[in-house]
Amino acid sequence: MAVGIFDSGLGGLTVLDAVSKGLPEVPFVYFGDNSHAPYGVRDADDVYNLTCKAVERLWDEGCDLVILACNTASAAALRRMQESWIPTDKRVLGVFVPLIEAMTERQWGDNSPPREVAVEHVALFATPATVRSRAFQRELAFRAIGVDVEAQACGGLVDAIEDGDMILAEALVRSHVDALLRKMPDPEAAILGCTHYPLMQDIFQDALGANVKVYSQANLVADSLADYLKRHPAMIGTGTESGFLTTGDPEKVSRHATQFLRRKISFTQA
């Protein structure tokens, strides 16, 4: 009955932490493609091929449902995977839609026509690949009209967080926020469009100011997954064991993951 959680690196652990707390009875298998991270600087075909390979590995672990806890993969690969690659007995879900539905105050699964919403000016902080894909704007357009989105590619931030260099990470956050505010001086909401970024949420909030509502993904994805499994219980796969897989050096990744979540994490080779 395992569910797979995939990310290019460690950022998806923020999603894993939230879904594990919300669904303690469900085993989760986490796959980090650390040897190829970060995905945010790769082209769309590369991201697609790497994501498909990782998802197949999680299917081998008995995870019929896989969550792409990687915004770059969700943005650059998910739609293509859903249109032409995923078998009918499997599901792969992304992390954008729960975030957009929360921001636009729509119920999960609400497929009614787009409408005006409370926010008009939204800042999006994401990896270069996610920004290039314009996937956030596309998904938003299905649900809302009249919303101006200003995207800021946060180059270097994922690397700094993965390396544990929080001094550099804070400097980069403040630099990227400054760049965004020069383009959009008064955003009403800000989207942290990468699962690494919640670790820096307080810094984003401080740099943006108290009047900007900052949205991050982990808890929203956890709530959406619980709702999805309630409506689709058959999508819980045959796997029974939780675990952590990596394409990188398991000892190094385990050490960084333990620092990342502040609890003991042990990865094995994928």
Please describe what this structure looks like.
This protein is 44% helix and 17% strand. It is of the alpha/beta class. It has two domains: 3-94 and 218-269, Rossmann fold; 97-215, Rossmann fold, CATH 3.40.50. The protein has a six-stranded parallel sheet with strand order 4-3-1-2-11-12, sandwiched between helices. Helix 5 crosses helix 7 and helix 9 packs parallel to helix 10 (201-208). The longest helix is centred in the middle third of the chain and has 18 residues, at 166-183. The two termini are 20 Å apart.
Distance between the termini: 20 Å
Give me the CATH architecture of the largest domain, please: 3-Layer(aba) Sandwich
Quickly name the level 1 CATH class of the largest domain. Answer: Alpha Beta
Number of strands: 12
Output the strand order for the largest sheet.
4-3-1-2-11-12
Q: How confident overall, as mean pLDDT?
A: 92
Q: Find the structural class using helix and strand composition.
A: alpha/beta
